[in-house]
Design goal:
Blueprint (H helix, E strand, L loop, with lengths): L1 H29 L8 E4 L3 E8 L5 E13 L6 E3 L2 E7 L2 E8 L2 E3 L4 E11 H4 L5 H7 L1 E16 L3 E16 L6 E9 L1
Antiparallel strand pairs: 1-3, 2-3, 3-8, 4-7, 4-9, 5-6, 5-9, 9-10, 10-11
Keywords: Membrane, Transmembrane, Transmembrane helix
Protein name: Late embryogenesis abundant protein LEA-2 subgroup domain-containing protein
Organism: Aristolochia fimbriata (White veined hardy Dutchman's pipe vine)
């Protein structure tokens, strides 16, 4: 009789400990270890090269360096798909730069850089080209969309998508471009 009572108490304590451990594990999975949005920090656009000649024929070539830093705040990795940074002039796409697919380890950051070439031929279709040329600056918009997945213990996976848009002003005098960027991430 006494040994049966001891077995029941031992089983009860074991079940209670297992229940407590499961509750703690689930609480940790959905609080501390819950996948979080990667932090995207755009950097000012850099004008790497400008070639401008008005005569004998119009020549305008720009090379822009667009870069962002992505920080993964998760306890698991963040894998992202290949994407492109697109450059628009007055609503028309005039350039693009690739960003290869990859992954960012737990609590790590990675810098993404892409170089985009822009020529006057791609911009001449706009009715505002000559007015902007006379004003000494061009306004561009860049856009990139990132799709990825945050993974924890190969068990908990959350899809993430993000969009970064930048308004960029490039001056023909060669002065550093002005850029203002906005980022929105959803997980």
């Amino acid at each position: 009789m006494a040994s049966r009572r001891g077995v029941i108490i031992c089983c009860g304590v074991t079940v209670a400990i297992i229940v407590i451990l499961v509750v703690v594990a689930i609480t940790l999975l959905f609080t501390v270890f819950k996948p979080k949005e990667p932090k995207v920090q755009p950097h000012p656009v850099i004008l790497q090269r400008i070639e401008f000649e008005l005569l004998p024929i119009l020549k305008l070539n720009l090379t822009l360096l667009v870069s962002v830093t992505v920080k993964n705040p998760n306890y698991g990795s963040f894998k992202y798909d290949e994407t492109k940074v697109l450059i628009y002039y007055r609503g028309t796409q005039i350039g693009e730069g690739p960003i290869d697919a990859g992954s960012i380890s737990s609590h790590e950051s990675e810098d993404f850089n892409t170089v985009i070439e822009i020529t006057a031929e791609k911009m001449l279709g706009s009715k505002d080209f000559w007015q902007d040329l006379g004003g000494g600056h061009f306004n561009f918009t860049s856009e990139s969309k990132v799709y990825g997945k945050a993974t924890l213990f190969k068990l908990l996976k959350k899809h993430a998508r993000g969009r970064t848009t930048c308004d960029i002003t490039v001056y023909l005098t060669g002065r550093d471009p002005d850029s203002t960027c906005k980022t929105k991430m959803n997980i």
